[in-house]
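Hi W., the NAP complex you wanted:
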Amino acid sequence: MKVNDSFGPGPYKANDRRYDTMQFRRCGNSGILMPLISLGLWHNFGHTNDLETGRGLLRCAFDNGITHFDLANNYGPPYGAAEENFGRIFKDDFKPYRDELLISSKAGWDMWPGPYGNFGSRKYLVASLDQSLKRMGLDYVDIFYHHRPDPDTPLEETMGALHHLVQRGKALYAGISQYPADLTAKAAKIMKDLGTPLLIHQPRYNMLDRWVEDGLLGELEKQGMGSIAFSPLEQGILTNKYLGGIPKDSRALKDGRYLKEAQITPEVLKKVEQLNTIAKNRGQSLAQMAIAWLLKDERISTVLVGVSKQEQLLDNLEALKNIKFSEAELKNINTVLG
Ligand SMILES: NC(=O)c1ccc[n+]([C@@H]2O[C@H](COP(=O)([O-])OP(=O)(O)OC[C@H]3O[C@@H](n4cnc5c(N)ncnc54)[C@H](OP(=O)(O)O)[C@@H]3O)[C@@H](O)[C@H]2O)c1
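Structure:
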């Protein structure tokens, strides 16, 4: 594993050995291979963050074979900032490597004022992807997602917009995020009929949030779609970082937008402590075990981590050394998870 210690926008030459250790998995029935670990830019890439730290994270990721960077229109803060910062770093560092990268964006949550900057209309999705491409300085994204189901817009309209964007070459593939199993089946049918099969689903999935096991993963397999599990570490709770108190530089204290201190309850920490012991017995950190636990299921094409430090990314990458579990380990984990 390689730390990237060359900071600043100076010339970046990617590690020649970047593909030595990364493992790749086919995304559903498609032609796309995903690295088993992908990097998300939801946090740590806003205008409130240090651009050079973000540059180091992206370089470290690519130097270790992570070929997939995941964004969305509203990642920041403020909205759009992560795409702008990614665009700057892309221009300085990654342009020569564009064809080695899978870059995704999304629209579906609140983005701009008024009735056309949210949810799932064709008006919103088409305008939003145009804005994202400008911010990132890209001609196309590899995957464009509808970020969440919209109860009011006809599914045909939302899927039609994704199909249209792929047809226009603005996105190579289309995906959906957080759609339940029944809606996923309907969306997949519409897209197959249009001739743009959905590549991938991006659900929230980790040891403490297992909703996808109740129908969604089976549906994805049936449809030949891949999946990318987001918040695999429950925003950092599924690591050993909160076991000795709440560190000052942690997401829970630094950025209370999504992970609240109140979520880190004694009951949660008791589970984390027990899982940490199981991880230690496997010779892994808890973060590594949490990632491996997702990857044991071949229906998970890749695990989408967020990191605030390169050391975290390197820790997470070590998970790939052991993604198999014995029956006894799985039983113990299930007992803890309840
Ligand atoms: N589709 C959607 O609706 C949706 C929603 C949310 C996220 N996402 C995607 O999923 C990506 C990942 O989400 P996430 O950031 O919540 O993922 P996560 O991997 O569950 O949590 C990331 C946080 O965990 C901590 N961490 C990571 N590795 C660690 C390690 N080895 N040791 C100790 N702490 C570690 C860091 O926290 P500290 O900052 O405290 O150091 C890091 O910021 C996002 O960037 C985004 O691309 C998608």
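Strands lie at 24-26, 33-35, 37-40, 68-70, 102-107, 141-146, 171-177, 200-202, 226-230, 302-305.

W.
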